[in-house]
Amino acid sequence: MTKKVAILISGGGSNMVKLVESMVGDHPARPVLVGSNDPQAGGLKKAAEMGVPTFAVDHRPFKGDREGFEAELNAKLEAADPDIICLAGFMRVLTESFVRKWEGRMLNIHPSLLPKYKGLHTHQRALEAGDKEAGCTVHMVTPALDDGPILGQARVPVQPDDTPETLAARVLVQEHRLYPAVLERFAQGKTDPVYLD
Ligand code: GRF
């Protein structure tokens, strides 16, 4: 049975584009919705151009009322009734009650080799630590930030002259390989982690 996938973004949505592009042919999943907390998110236009229904719930009017924002977000998601939610460059922290509702069906991609560098500025922190390699992780979303079971990782070398921007660009290329690979496996019920070289 084809799995229905909703994707949440906050910006350009390059990971979302790769996920949508991957769900074709005999792939076990199909995109049913792309949503954002920013009505101006560039990825919303890209999703619409690919024929995927979109929505935006602007988080700013809810400032401080995280539950109110999430109630709106949930209403949009429930209407699409997804089997899987992919957070892809989604930059809002979700409350425990929201996560509990979707736990086991919600994935996230994080631009570090978790458990290292949870949170923000991952590439800068890896460079400051003098790491020789970096990468990205797809994990199940649990209430603790960037902390759920790992479903896949991809590694890149750190170059001596790297800046956070050059490292981010190298990691992003791997994100675009890893997330589609993990989603296809997850849609088939596979949760043993995949490590891309
Ligand atoms: C990128 O920095 C990526 O590492 C992280 O979110 C940011 C935007 O991704 N996952 P996208 O282009 O919006 O998918």
TrEMBL record:
GO biological process annotation, one example: 'de novo' IMP biosynthetic process
Gene3D superfamilies documented for this protein: Formyl transferase, N-terminal domain
Gene Ontology molecular function terms on file: phosphoribosylglycinamide formyltransferase activity
Binding site for N(1)-(5-phospho-beta-D-ribosyl)glycinamide: 13-15
GO cellular component, one term: cytosol
Annotated EC: 2.1.2.2
Formyl transferase N-terminal domain ranges (all copies): 3-183
Keyword Coiled coil attributed: no
Annotated active site: 110 (proton donor)
Residues annotated to bind (6R)-10-formyltetrahydrofolate: 66, 108
Pathway(s) where this gene product acts: Purine metabolism; IMP biosynthesis via de novo pathway; N(2)-formyl-N(1)-(5-phospho-D-ribosyl)glycinamide from N(1)-(5-phospho-D-ribosyl)glycinamide (10-formyl THF route): step 1/1
UniProt function note: Catalyzes the transfer of a formyl group from 10-formyltetrahydrofolate to 5-phospho-ribosyl-glycinamide (GAR), producing 5-phospho-ribosyl-N-formylglycinamide (FGAR) and tetrahydrofolate.
Record's protein name: Phosphoribosylglycinamide formyltransferase
Organism: Thalassovita mangrovi
Lineage: Bacteria, Pseudomonadati, Pseudomonadota, Alphaproteobacteria, Rhodobacterales
